[in-house]
Input
Amino acid sequence: MAGVQVANVSRSFGAHKALDDVSIDFADGGFYALLGPSGSGKTTLLRQIAGFDFPDAGRIAIGGESVERVPVEKRRIGMVFQNYALFPNMSVADNIAFGLSVRGEPKATIAKEVQRALDLVQLGKLGGRKPHQLSGGQRQRVALARAIVTKPRVLLLDEPLGALDKALRVDMQIELKRIQREIGITTIFVTHDQEEALTMSDRIGILRDGRMVQEGPPEEIYDRPQSEFAATFLGDANIFRGNATGFGIKLPDGTTIAASTGASVPAGAKASCAVRPERIRISTGAAKPDPANANTLTGRVSKRIFAGNNSTYFVDRDGQTLKVIVQNTGAERLAEGEPVVLSWSPDSTVLIAA
Amino acid sequence: MADQLAIGSRRGLKPALPLLLPAYLWLTVAIFLPLSAMVFFSFMTDLPLAGKEWSFTLGNYAVFFSQSLYSTLLFASLRLGLEVTLWCIVIGYPAAYVLAKVLKGRSREAIFLLVILPFWSNGLVRIFSWAMVLREGGILDTALNAVLPFKINIDLMYSYPAVIIGLVHSYVPYMVLTCYLTLQAIDDSLIEAGRSLGASRRQVLWRVIIPLSMPGLIAGAALIFVPVVGSFMEPRILGGRTGTFYGTVIEDQFVAVFNWPLGAALSFILLAVVLIILALAAPVLRRAG
Ligand SMILES: Nc1ncnc2c1ncn2[C@@H]1O[C@H](COP(=O)(O)OP(=O)(O)OP(=O)(O)O)[C@@H](O)[C@H]1O
Ligand SMILES: [Mg+2]
Output
């Protein structure tokens, strides 16, 4: 088991920079999610770490040992592919045994380790089946067992749950997390799904156009995004743009918004504020203003979407549509077209340098 | 796959019959009728032409067993078929691998064309061009002597190697095509998965790629072995006096000696032997594939 250090790694395909000076530290035993839109370089980064592809520049170390030029078969990594990539001509047990057998382990050891891996992924009795006789979730487990049976130093997964339906996905998330805890392996997990990234990982790295936009624990990225992109890509956010005042920003119409978290931006410079929809309180004009929620704006409800336990209000204000999420506690519901007051605390407002 | 089969069997063959009819008609006219005529001939003492007397006999088949010449030639032809098939694998499989897994885009198309080219040229033209290359004072001889500092005599013409070269050249496209198709279907992620598990390129080749391309190798081998065992054109032209094989003897019966009944009987013995070989090989190959 080992940590992975990626330092200033760049990789271009022709004129296109798929990775542009990416640095990130994956601590030993951690569970990392790499998140980003399609084409942002997630797979490319994972392939550099795996050794399927070599960077043009930069350093990659696994367990402190430089591996930029080490081919994949010598890196001692485990990889789970999006399409599982199980060998169709081999039984489940032979698939899992493959890594041990190419290493020349004795037959008895292989049989024992394979059974242990099968038990770990709860497929104890299916060793004799062929991959095409398994369900999607079972194939997923076999791919995982095959990747970890060789005791790799790092486990790399490229959208491993992408092909599963929602319910199975949640099961597998829990399962994957359990197995990762059990063997304590450093895990790097590529995903499209922000919810998956938030619930599963210890840390998240957000990629955009080949650059690492922000990296940190999920709570930190969610509560203190350092860019508009990070704010809107991980979760929903209302963005206000204006000029920094030293305590927040002033919008073009003169309204000020106070922010007590985020970057420090010199007064007068362009800046924006991000507010999560669930941090905003929505009320009719008649309600008494709450001193704790110092930021207030007025607007008009343009749409309300009911989603069972919560409702989303879209509020029009001065050409901007703001989003507010309210728990459905049985209190009054606001009608479309109704004038409303929005208020929230400066503590919930993140200042972002433009 | 299993789903498709299930659907097929549930609907039954009946709706497909009108679609299959033309194919069956064609098979009947083009293959079954001439073949039955040949079976008939093979049991006759003589051709019923020009009012000659004829009767039924097993004599044509008996000839094969009474004269060791025929079984010797059959063995020579089987060996020829085996050797040509092996050379086609040795040359065709790597070529198919490069086409399917290494080359991309334009260069793939160009090389593909080169591989298919022998298919489009007339068989006789192909064989005679080899004759020009292989004979003493031919292209190969002249070229090698121009490059090498010492004098060597290359005269492969009218030899066993010449027959092999000509046949391999004619039949290697089959191997390339069948292997290309199966290699093409192997997902690259399987190769990457193998390597991520610590297997070297060579181990991935032997444990993943070759087993998965077995169907293509088998199909190619069957497509090559069967016609090569009965071949007569290449052995005759490139082999000269050394080029007497089972196929050339059959051809002689039809075009030179006009002993059609013996020719037909020898053909059916060949057909039976080839079918037996394929039947014996099938379970072994299926296990490997
Ligand atoms: N082998 C390659 N040749 C040329 N361009 C490539 C190659 N691999 C990746 N790219 C390009 O690099 C960029 C990053 O690709 P990558 O596959 O890493 O994206 P991704 O973040 O994994 O996207 P997705 O979420 O869609 O899987 C893309 O613009 C892609 O077109
Ligand atoms: Mg990808």
